[in-house]
Write a structure and sequence with these properties.
Blueprint lengths: L2 H12 L13 H14 L1 H12 L8 H17 L3 E5 L7 E6 L7 E7 L18 E3 L20 E3 L7 H16 L7 E7 L9 H7 L8 E4 L11 E3 L1 E13 L5 E2 H4 L6 H12 L20 H8 L5 H8 L10 H4 L4 E8 L10 E2 L2 E10 L5 H14 L3 E3 L5 H6 L3 E6 L6 E2 L5 H14 L4 E3 L2 E4 L3 H7 L3 E3 L15 E3 H16 L4
Parallel strand pairs: 3-6, 3-7, 7-19, 8-17, 9-18, 14-15
Antiparallel strand pairs: 1-2, 2-6, 4-5, 5-20, 9-13, 9-15, 9-16, 10-12, 11-13
Length: about 500
């Protein structure tokens, strides 16, 4: 595809017109070819680099593992000529920082990713979560490190944080190596920020960013997190939903009661919990809490056009996930532009062989809210609590005594988890157009453009502190089991990610 035709396709996809779309940066076929040749000659070493990272137990429950991973990454940057050091985590794990200046470069790009992974339940995994295992398409383990065999791009590397988020770090390092091996120079000044507590909600990140504002300043932040489009097309994203969550306890009798002797008389907390959930959202995911969406920022014409241009994936996903229907009729991506109320779980009494003919003493409801621009965690909390009090509930934030339970006909305990707001960045800035064009040139086709990921990442902090464009550069496969057992990375996604990062390091210009 010519650069002119590529620019036209991107302009039409975004509804911006050709005059506002930058021509693809001068990454050109020579650089793309050099990167491809470097990768093909070093596939085992590249995969081994990621496997070595997976083998480090860098999760919140293991501070020593987090520090070991940070030290390894700092050494990796130092070996490549970066001025690298660890930044004080202000109570959390250190941030890995690296900087490399390019003579004559007029822009500075900050590359962000996180090196921590989600907690694990080893019993749920097919193989130990911190023992990297390569598996073929049929799921069988394969020996891949012996000899000089070419790796099948459909093979997958399994292990915690394989895709979320160590793949982005491995792709960045390999892309830099490929550019250096081709005797080229980066087209931008580079700063690297790799965080160690993103999976814990980044509680200390804002303080670290403010304390190091001058050091971390740049013209653009590229966020290496999240999956590509479900069609497997490479993706550029412009934000992420925010999140907050709440644990609810609905109180019934002081102790479980015989359902025959007391049924129809003693209020049943399981029924009360079910009715409460049904009053908060309907079967199509619409949130019924009055005023909940009043602050939501409308989708722009460019964002709507980008969503409409995405390849349709709903039919395939329904088959893959064995879904008889979807919530609503607007499609997957459009639905993630709205706030969401997800019931993480309801717990009360027992079922199956353990079921008893009893009225339980209490019921628990666990809910997460996905927020969109215009909403805040505090605002969501106020609206939820106003909804509850309006329906006759008395709210407490502590365990009530028997007198309190007897005094209130509808008593509920709320434990809020905090959270953070969403970000949906401007898709029409010169930096945005340059990133889309560079990524498309690297992919050999127009990339998918997503106004906002459905998942949550606290990237609002970067815009809040630095006031520059924040753009997502996800590379993981969409079916990577992110946050679940048997997390994995498809090798072709790693190869494509290397191409994308090489374009950002060696061919980005605006």
């Amino acid at each position: 595809m010519s650069l002119r035709r590529l620019g036209l396709a991107l302009g039409l996809a975004l509804g911006l017109g050709i005059s506002t779309v930058a021509a693809a940066p001068a990454i050109g076929a020579p650089l793309q070819g050099d990167v491809a040749r470097y990768r093909a000659a070093n596939e085992q070493a590249i995969a081994r680099q990621l496997a070595d990272m997976i083998a480090i137990e860098s999760v919140a429950a293991n501070p020593a593992g987090l520090r070991k991973q940070a030290d390894m990454l700092m050494a990796a940057l130092g070996a490549r000529g970066f001025a690298a050091r660890l930044l004080n985590g202000k109570g959390g794990p250190p941030l890995v920082y690296g900087e490399l200046k390019t003579p004559g470069a007029k822009r500075t790009v900050v590359f962000y990713a996180h090196y921590d992974g989600q907690p694990v339940e080893p019993a749920q995994w097919t193989s130990p979560p911190f023992v990297p295992v390569m598996r073929s398409v049929n799921g069988a383990p394969v020996e891949w490190q012996a000899g000089a065999q070419k790796l099948d791009p459909e093979w997958r590397l399994f292990g915690r944080a394989a895709s979320d988020d160590k793949a982005a770090i491995a792709a960045f390092l390999t892309a830099f190596d490929a550019i250096k091996a081709s005797r080229r120079r980066p087209s931008v000044n580079i700063k690297v920020v790799w965080e160690g507590e993103e999976e814990a909600g980044s509680p200390h990140l804002n303080d670290v960013l403010i304390a190091n504002k001058a050091l971390l300043a740049g013209d653009l932040w590229l966020i290496g997190d999240g999956p590509v489009h479900q069609s497997r097309r490479p993706l550029i994203s412009f934000g992420a939903r925010g999140v907050t969550a709440v644990e609810m306890i609905v109180f019934g009798p002081a102790r479980a009661l015989h359902s025959g002797h007391y049924g129809n008389w003693a209020p049943n907390p399981a029924v009360m919990a079910a009715g409460l959930v049904a009053a908060m959202r309907d079967d199509d995911g619409n949130i019924l809490i009055p005023g909940f969406s009043d602050d939501v920022r409308a989708v722009t014409a460019a964002e709507a056009a980008a969503i409409a241009a995405l390849p349709p994936v709903e039919a395939d996903l329904k088959r893959d996930l064995a879904l008889g229907r979807s919530e609503g009729s607007e499609g997957l991506t459009a639905s993630t532009m709205r706030p969401a109320l997800n019931v993480r779980g309801i717990s009360t009494g027992n079922t199956g062989a353990s079921a008893a003919n009893a009225i339980a003493a209490q019921a628990r409801i666990s809910i997460d809210f996905r927020l969109v621009p215009g909403q805040t965690p505090d605002g969501v909390r106020r609206k939820v609590e106003a909804f509850l009090t309006g329906r006759g509930w008395t709210i407490t934030d502590a365990a009530p005594d028997l007198a309190a339970r007897a005094a209130h006909p509808r008593l509920i305990r709320l434990d809020w988890e905090g959270g953070y707001p969403a970000l949906r960045a401007d898709m029409t800035t010169p930096a945005a157009r340059a990133v889309i064009a560079a990524a498309s040139a690297a992919a050999g086709q127009p990339v998918a453009v997503l106004p906002m990921m459905g998942g949550s990442v606290p990237i609002y902090m970067f815009e809040q502190v630095f006031g520059v464009p924040i753009i997502g550069l996800p590379i993981a496969n969409h079916d990577n089991n992110q946050h679940a057992a048997n997390e994995n990375l498809r090798l072709q996604n790693l190869w494509d990610g290397i191409d994308a990062y090489a374009a950002m390091i060696g061919g980005l210009d605006w």
